[in-house]
Design brief:
Blueprint: H1 6-24, H2 28-40, H3 49-62, H4 69-80, H5 89-104, H6 111-118, E1 131-134, E2 140-143, H7 146-158, H8 164-180, H9 187-197, H10 201-214, H11 218-227, H12 231-243, H13 252-261, H14 267-283, H15 290-298, H16 308-314, H17 317-324, E3 329-339, E4 345-351, E5 356-361, H18 364-367, E6 373-382, E7 385-397, E8 415-423, E9 431-433, E10 437-439, H19 441-446, E11 454-461, E12 467-473
Parallel strand pairs: 10-12
Antiparallel strand pairs: 1-2, 3-4, 3-6, 4-5, 6-7, 8-9, 8-11, 9-10, 11-12
Helix pairs in contact: 1-2, 1-3, 2-3, 3-4, 3-5, 5-6, 5-7, 7-8, 8-9, 9-10, 10-11, 11-12, 12-13, 12-16, 12-17, 13-14
Amino acid sequence: MDINSQEHIKAIAPEIAKAYQLGKEQKYDEAYQVLVPHFEVKEIPVYFEEPCGWTIYRYLKNHEGKLSTRDIRKALAFYLTFASCKPSTLHSCIMMQAANLEKKHENDFRFIEFCLMWKLESLRDEDFIPGKGTTENGKSIEFQSLAENVATRLYKELKTRHTEEFVSELFPFFDFIKEKCPNNRFIGMYIAQLYYWQGHKEKAIDEYKAILRTTPEWFIWKHLGDICQDKEMRISLYCKAMTMMGKEEYIGDLRLGLANLLMESNREQAAYEIEQYMKTYKNNGWKISGDVYLLQNKLLGVVPSDQAKQFYRNNIKKAEEFAYSDIPTEELTYSGIVTNHAGKERANLVNKQKKIFVRTPLTPLLRKASIGDVFLVRIYENQNRKNALTIHPTDKKNTTPSNRQSPQLPKDSEVCTITGTVSLPAQGDFCFIDHQYYVPEKLTKAYNLKEGETMKAKAKKMPDGRWRVVSIIK
């Protein structure tokens, strides 16, 4: 029987219409069950593939918390027999639902196989555009695009199932995502791991080093340490990660890795890492593996170090040289703290002679700094923005008074004319003049403002006390 013949289309049309009506009544399970017998014998004509695909999508979407992975795989297998639906809005919606379901059924869904059958080249241009939304308090937020979400879900599954075949087949997709979504700070890390799983260790290291120039996050240092063979280098890389760590809940593996490396050379520090690990896991009610208890038993009677932070700081030089040996250091003077438009405090570091102006997050070192303190700073410029990669103190002091003039305003004045130097933040399309006058994105782009150039503008004092540039004076 030709399933695309007019005779067959007419014969199956009442069943399709019935499923459609049940769907309109929000009886999604019943609508799906009406069509299951036809799905099983593969007798859906091309003419009805799209409406049947929407029935499958709504069934999955409205029952995602109730379905077993077997039911999910069965429904998606039915859908994948429809050749006419890709690429399309329906095809992308099915992928979105599959990614959501994989998140709920992690390591039990076989998402890799689904993606290979779905054909990742079927992603549309729209699928690479991040979504936008608003929180309950009115704050704008941005969501990962569908393509980025798929890459994240694939990477999580690859961590436990990185066969040579899967890695080779999926590598072009991750490479394409990197090109299409350059602002995603995780894609480079995924690619580095793919290189490592392929046995290309040097390429993996080079990829991680490249990431550390633009996104020097603690977890990148940790991952780089994971793939290095030299024990002393691994300790240094883990220590660097510890000086930049985020929430304590995230760094259990980092503490265990460091403890294992220090079992012979520094048992007091190893005991400290295990102590902190146990404390975090117990406070959160998390299960502690037997391996951790074995490590703890090997350290019985050892008093945990009370100089942990100093240990980390003393052991980061090797890691920094490994990652940034080709980047020279510059002498920059600390000129104070400013609060950016988002309300976050940043430290100003300047070298006026070389026209270097850097605004960087406050570290414990910078919080203790005094105006005029000189630091050795490695700087990497990316897209006209300067990032301070490493910051180390010197015994020098710059006593040259600042020539920056703050506007002399009447007490009740709200608008003034200012002249100052443009500084670009590490992220965002806005900028600042003299590190304190916020220039919105619209003006920054309209006048193509660049780091270090001198600019005259009109600024208005806002109700919260901060200054906002309202016009540029040519």
